[in-house]
Design a protein that fits this description.
By secondary structure, the chain is an alpha+beta fold. Helices cover about 40% and strands about 20% of the residues. The chain folds into five domains: about 60 residues, Helix Hairpins (Orthogonal Bundle), CATH 1.10.287.610; about 240 residues, DNA ligase/mRNA capping enzyme (D-amino Acid Aminotransferase, Chain A, domain 1, 2-Layer Sandwich); about 100 residues, Beta Barrel (OB fold (Dihydrolipoamide Acetyltransferase, E2P)); about 150 residues, DNA polymerase, domain 1 (Orthogonal Bundle); about 100 residues, BRCT domain (Rossmann fold, 3-Layer(aba) Sandwich), CATH 3.40.50.10190. Strand 21, helix 22 and strand 22 form a beta-alpha-beta unit. Helix 1 packs antiparallel against helix 2 and helix 3 runs antiparallel to helix 9. Bound molecules: 2-(butylsulfanyl)adenosine. 2-(butylsulfanyl)adenosine binds next to strand 3, strand 8 and strand 11.
């Protein structure tokens, strides 16, 4: 820190310009170029310079502002009560410091009650309700004036258009528009599929969606709104923050359930550290906790400073971003032959998890980000556990960095790697590429597919490398001698494996079709197909039009099925499998007697005991349909530990909502009843793992 005034003048100006520039990129363009950590460091430095030389505080100093001016293309609207920002605490000690300031200001000795909430990382908005009706919706903008985005906000399902209960004359509701991680992941998947750049984080995804001139774009993005406070109100009064939140809930808003009122700062510190530890279990991005003096009377006495209130503080979590170096960029091969560039990184801790690889998605992304071998890069884990390279720090380049080029031949089989028309991905086009075969085999034997006990990844890799298995069907030609000749394969395990392989020959047709790995054909589709085509022969001969008659089968799926069965090699392989006794049977899904027949179930939120895939498979096998969104046709919704809009939708439509415990009870009861209904000899076989 400089003591020299001339130097301070120069630095303050530099920091102001830089911060204003980044503010604009962040708030107006929704396209930040530096990380929050870098921004905070600059911001803190400017605060320090200004604290030392208060005469240097200019009226346009970013430290006096809350956000950024609104975009000019939107009509503007004033917030009658300004929407303030929050001061940050980056350590427990800074929280304790805040508590001391609060007590000193109020002149109290005893402990203060604090309302603690997770800090949602999205876009702050204000909703004005008059006589219970939503009349204005706006962004925070610079805190005093925001953009009028009422129509866009109306498309968000968790924003009530009319308040529930007994609405007051006037209520201004404040909260955050965000995306659930699940919805964000899907958004980026689609972005990449369309060859568009992915969003850096859910916050940019939501902010971009709300600030669209065409509200259909907003409607197309799955946004959620969580309320956390109120502005003006007439005809309703609250005494505490906790009461405010309860009231908001009654009016029909979603509020986070993790909120707590705690007495004394030490309990608050414990809460913040706990939430930080659970952070990744949350269904949406949170970047800290907000700690508010609970009593609104005390809040009024504390009042506010220029840009933030004295009665609240944000405890910021460890950043989910870090700096590291790209050691190499490799080409990674997937099941479908897709070749993905992957940054091999110097291992670094990002929010407590060691990261050493990060996907670069495809060549368009590598070029757009201009990531080179040897670059220092920002890596982040956002909205997803999969780490990502945000951007290289080009100013740190030495000139030695190397530009990555996609190999023209497959790293595994030497086959040609091409970028097909209309795709953003490069693929190995050799149909018999061992990497593809490995991927197909892994899928074929996996739990939800053929479920071959004891057939692990390492074993599959050996079988493919040694060219023992050249197609999926090759698994059924394995013998004891071959298996025991493999590494780490004892006689006993080899025998068990053969028993397991034999046992799957009569798996149901639906599982078999799913296991083949036909593009677009998931478990639910496989079950639906079998309802219409009850043998492999019939399916192999099916015409496009017939397939289209199957419920939920569209042109893409139908096309993929026809393509699969018209391929000579696939047909020959299926014939060979049949000769080896693989005889998938259309489960006489005695539809009438399937315990969950006719029920449409939606799974939402995070399950603790079951994985989502497992829950889905079991439901389907018991006759239920698993849908992705709640509608009037939904029979019941399973709500995991934390669920968003779907559970609300269920409530709106009066659809039954159950928790995971109840789901497991239902699955077990249904499984018992279907086992009893099954033939006694089949039931006996099930009990006895050895078949010969
Ligand atoms: S209270 C004056 N509560 O954090 C109090 N803010 O810097 C202002 N935020 O963009 C806000 N979760 O939108 C509050 N539970 C929460 C919050 C929260 C996220 C955002 C807010 C603003 C920023 C404050």
């Amino acid at each position: 820190m400089t003591e020299n005034i001339a130097e301070a003048v120069r630095r303050a100006k530099e920091l102001r310009d830089e911060l204003n520039h980044h503010n604009h990129l962040y708030h107006v363009m929704d396209a930040p170029q530096i990380t929050d950590v870098e921004y905070d460091a600059l911001y803190r430095e400017l605060e320090e310079v200004e604290a030392r030389f208060p005469q240097l505080v200019t009226p346009d100093s970013p430290t006096l502002r809350v956000g950024a001016p609104p975009l000019s293309q939107f009509e503007q609207t004033a917030h009658v009560l300004p929407m303030l920002g929050l001061e940050n605490a980056v350590s427990p000690d800074e929280l304790r410091e805040f508590d001391r300031r609060v007590k000193k200001f109020l002149g109290v000795e005893g402990e203060v009650n604090y309302a603690c909430e997770p800090k949602l990382d999205g876009l702050a908005v204000e909703l004005v309700y008059e006589e219970g009706l939503l009349v204005i919706g706006s962004t925070r903008g610079d805190g005093r004036t925001g953009e009028l985005v009422t129509e866009n906000l109306r498309t968000i399902k968790s924003i009530p258009l009319a308040l529930g209960g007994t609405p007051p004359r006037l209520l201004e509701v404040r909260g955050e528009v965000t995306m659930l991680t699940e919805d964000f992941r899907e958004l980026n998947r689609v972005q990449l599929e369309r060859g568009l750049p992915p969003f850096a984080n859910p916050r940019n995804g939501s902010a971009g969606a709300v600030r669209q001139l065409d509200s259909r774009i907003t409607a197309g993005r799955k946004l959620s709104f969580f309320a956390y406070g109120v502005g003006r109100r007439e005809g309703v009064e609250f005494d505490t923050q906790a009461e405010t939140m309860d009231g908001l809930k009654k009016f029909g808003f979603m509020v986070r359930t993790e909120r707590k009122v705690l007495n004394g700062i030490e309990k608050v510190v414990g809460y913040c550290l706990d939430i930080e530890n659970w952070r990744e279990k949350f269904p949406l991005e949170i970047d800290g906790c907000v700690v508010k003096v609970d009593d609104l009377g005390l809040q009024r006495r504390l009042g506010e400073k220029a840009r933030s209130p004295r009665w609240a503080i944000a405890y910021k979590f460890k950043p989910m971003q870090a700096l590291t170096r790209v050691r190499d960029i490799s080409a990674s091969l997937g099941r479908t032959g897709k070749v993905t560039p992957v940054a091999e990184l110097e291992p670094v801790s990002v929010g407590g998890v060691i990261v050493s690889r990060a996907t670069l998605h495809n060549m368009d992304e590598v070029r757009r980000k201009d990531v080179r071998v040897g670059d220092t890069v920002i890596v982040q884990r956002a909205g997803d556990v999969i780490p990502e390279v945000v951007r290289p720090l080009t100013e740190k380049r030495s000139g030695e960095e190397e530009v990555f080029t996609m190999p023209t031949s497959c790293p595994r089989c030497g086959g040609e790697v091409v970028r097909l028309e209309g795709e953003s991905a490069h693929r190995c086009v050799n149909a018999s590429c061992p990497a593809k075969l490995t991927g197909r085999l892994k899928h074929f034997v996996s739990r939800r597919a053929m479920d071959i006990d004891g057939m692990g990844e390492k074993l599959i890799e050996q079988l493919v490398d040694k060219e023992i298995v050249k197609e999926i069907g090759g698994l059924f030609t394995l013998d004891l001698d071959t298996l025991v000749s493999l590494e780490r394969m004892a006689q006993k395990s080899a025998e068990n494996l053969l028993v397991a392989i034999e046992a799957v020959k009569g798996r149901t047709l639906a599982r078999f079709i799913f296991a083949l790995g036909i593009r677009q054909v998931g478990e639910t589709t496989a079950v639906a197909i079998v309802e219409r085509f009850d043998s492999l022969d019939k399916l192999a001969k099916a015409e496009l039009e017939e397939l289209l008659e199957v419920e939920d089968v569209g042109p893409e799926v139908a096309g993929a099925v026809v393509e699969y069965f018209s391929d000579g090699e696939n047909r020959a392989m299926l014939a060979r499998m049949r000769e080896m006794g693989v005889n998938p049977v259309a489960e006489k899904r005695d539809i009438a007697n399937m315990p969950l027949k006719g029920e449409t179930v939606v799974l939402t939120g995070k399950l603790e005991t079951l994985t989502r895939d497992e829950a889905k498979s079991r439901l389907i096998r018991l006759g239920a349909k698993v849908a992705s969104s709640v509608s009037a046709k939904t029979s019941w919704v399973v709500v995991g530990s934390d669920a968003g809009s779907k559970s609300k939708k269920a409530a709106e439509l009066s659809v039954e909502v159950v928790d995971e415990k109840k789901l497991i009870e239902r699955l077990e009861a249904a499984e018992r009843s279907s086992a009893e209904a099954a033939r006694p000899e089949a039931a006996a076989k099930k009990m006895q793992p050895k078949l010969f």
